[in-house]
Amino acid sequence: MKTRSLFGKLLMSLVLVSLLVGSLAVGSVEARVGDARMGIDAIRDDKKDDRDRWSGWERYFDGQTLSTPAMAIMDNQIHMMIRGLDNGIYFKRGNRGGWERLNGETQSSPALVYHNHTLYALVRGMDNGIYVTQMERGRWRRWERLEGGTLSGGSLASYNGRLYAAIQF
């Protein structure tokens, strides 16, 4: 059975993509022993020293997450998506303003990518289904369930005019 989707074709294999996006890398630090909550911090490489090392972590986003945050650059702004402490899916534009809760829930880290002037997101649903959506005119469309399922989060990549999704199955 073939399924039409936002992506056209879902790759059911491991995709390794190396992207250089401006001067930014992200990670989660500040683990709190006992409740496993993670703070959201970012680092910028524009402060590299003469030995080409990363500078220290600095607070960039507020909020807490149980999983690795996803981020993408769109319109010269950082956009971030997280799995909240309640398994909700939260989205934030830039480092100002609050988090927007999207419909649905996820058990894993979301994926986010900017492709052809559109922001795309992929999550693993509570039913282990694979769901995708895209932002149009500043608003998220409904989640679309793709064929198959996964027991972990997925990833998205944009390369050479095509959008790729990868999951573990």
What does this structure look like?
The protein has 169 residues and is an all-beta fold. It has a domain at 65-166: Neuraminidase. The chain has no helices and 14 strands. The strands form four sheets. Strands 8, 9, 10, 11 and 12 form a five-stranded antiparallel sheet that branches. A four-stranded antiparallel sheet has the order 4-5-6-7, with no helix packed on it. A hairpin with a 2-residue loop joins strand 13 (155-159) and strand 14. Residues 1-38 have low confidence and may be disordered.
Average pLDDT works out at 74
At the first level of CATH, the class of the domain at 65-166 is: Mainly Beta
CATH topology label of the domain at 65-166: Neuraminidase
* Strand composition percent: over 45%
CATH architecture of the domain at 65-166: 6 Propeller
Query: DSSP helix count?
Result: 0
Which descriptor suits the 3D outline?
globular
- Give the class from helix and strand content and strand pairing: mainly beta
Radius of gyration based on Cα positions: 16 Å
- Total beta strands: 14
Q: What is the CATH superfamily of the domain at 65-166?
A: TolB, C-terminal domain
Termini Cα gap: 17 Å
Q: Considering DSSP H and I runs of 4 or more, what fraction of the residues is helical?
A: under 10%
Instruction: State the order of secondary-structure elements, H for helix, E for strand.
Output: EEEEEEEEEEEEEE
State the gist of this model.
By secondary structure, the protein is an all-beta fold. The chain has strands at 24-29, 38-44, 58-65, 70-74, 77-83, 88-93, 100-105, 111-115, 118-124, 129-136, 139-140, 144-149, 155-159, 162-166.
